[in-house]
Write a structure and sequence with these properties.
This protein is an alpha+beta fold. The protein is about 20% helix and about 35% strand.
Length: about 400
């Protein structure tokens, strides 16, 4: 290349380099504009741990609070805790297997600043040693996430949930929601359900089920809907016609069992070997299964009753009464004269009296005459208030669409 040409090319190259540098400098953020993210604070038990260290432990068998705290704080402080904080939390009630945490200063002294004992999955008590002694109770933040599930009954609701790997707590919740409308002991193969619900978690660990937001249970060709709706600061479940799912009586007095004997005018007694009426329903369930009151009422009898063994009878109103026989024991405080609420535990499945195995003999009386519990109609509770019907109907439309989108 001739020298004259080189003299022309070099200025052009230099000019291009200057232009490129100028463009880059304009597109890059200035130093003052560069966003540096703030460090993420470490939080536990609503305490900022940026300047602390935390260690976790578990209460061992036969271990008390004094043993746990003795390496951490003075004996005088332990004595003060026992004497002054009983109204907040009685230290004698700590349980083996429950978790605790020790928060210490981040220095060579490793001074104990906080001690936290987890009473339940959500509740905990904090012993604050920063200045003197401060003891208080608090709750962990429960996170609610919306999930959905579906399934087809193979043999029972319980087995379907186990086989499909679904949360058993959801099955229990569904049995509560539909307790007044679906006989879960009479489910047929092919019955199916779809449900949208709240899954509860603490620190990303599942801890249970919140509200079922909407559910559709198809049983024997009929769709049973349940919509959760709040009105006047109270939540309840209603069907697609805004009628309450709750009834005066539950559908059954215990969960997840099977019926071994139904209401009949003639049955061969398994022990007496004679034919006689059986005016009740026998639910086979493991010994110790809780038995609950079918509805609100007054206990008129709680004691040994011949062939019924340990027996409880509840008068619900001037028309209806219920009886629960062959119990292994009674619920807390159950005795004649006690008033109970629907769902209260009144006893436990057993085999007392004339019985060949653990089961509940359950009976319903209408005007003192026995009636078939499985055919009894129960009047509904109050429907959605007319003032909220527009809002409720909009909810129903939205939720049905969401259910339909579940495969």
């Amino acid at each position: 290349m001739k020298k004259s040409h080189l003299r022309l090319v070099f200025p052009i190259i230099i000019l291009l380099l200057i232009l490129i540098g100028l463009i880059v400098s304009l597109t890059l953020p200035k130093e003052a504009e560069i966003q540096i993210p703030d460090p993420v604070s470490r939080i536990a038990y609503h305490i900022n741990l940026d300047t602390f260290d935390i260690e976790y432990g578990e209460v061992e068998r036969n271990q008390n609070l004094s043993e746990i705290l003795s390496p951490l704080v003075s004996l005088q402080m332990i004595d003060r805790i026992a004497r002054t904080s009983r109204q907040i939390f009685d230290v004698r009630k700590i349980r083996p297997g429950n978790r605790y945490a020790v928060i210490t200063s981040r220095d060579s002294l490793k001074q104990t600043i906080y001690f936290i004992y987890e009473i339940t999955a959500t509740d905990f008590v904090v012993y604050d040693f920063k200045d003197s002694l401060r003891v208080y109770r608090d709750k962990k933040k429960v996170t609610r996430s919306v999930k959905n599930a579906s399934g087809t009954i193979s043999s029972s609701l319980w087995n379907t949930f186990v086989d499909d790997g679904l949360d058993i707590n959801l099955a229990l919740k569904m049995s509560d929601v539909y307790a007044w409308t679906i006989d879960f002991y009479g489910l047929q193969k092919g019955d199916n359900f779809k449900v949208i619900y709240e899954a509860l978690s603490i620190d990303a660990v599942p801890v249970g089920i919140g509200n079922i937001l909407v559910s559709r249970f198809e049983s024997s060709g009929h769709d049973y809907y349940a919509f959760y709706f709040e009105q006047d600061s109270a939540g309840a479940y209603f069907d697609e016609l805004a009628q309450s799912l709750q009834r005066t009586f539950l559908k059954a007095p215990l969960r997840f069992s099977r019926i071994s004997s139904r209401f009949t005018r003639s049955r061969m007694h398994p022990i007496l070997k004679i034919s006689r009426p059986h005016y009740g329903v026998d639910y086979v369930a493991p010994r110790g299964t809780p038995v609950v009151a079918l509805g609100d009422g007054k206990v008129v009898d709680a004691g040994w009753n011949g062939g019924f063994g340990r027996h409880v009878r509840i008068r619900h109103n001037s028309v209806y009464a219920t009886g629960y026989g062959h119990l292994s024991g009674y619920g807390a405080g159950i005795k004649a004269g006690k008033y109970v609420k629907q769902g209260d535990v009144i006893g436990y499945v057993g085999s007392s009296g004339l019985s060949t195995g653990a089961h509940l003999d359950f009976r319903v009386y209408k005007n003192n005459s026995p009636v078939d519990p499985l055919k009894m109609e129960s009047p509904p509770a109050e429907p959605v208030d007319t003032a909220h019907l527009k809002e409720y109907n909009a909810l129903v439309k939205t939720m049905i669409a969401r259910l339909d989108s579940i495969n």
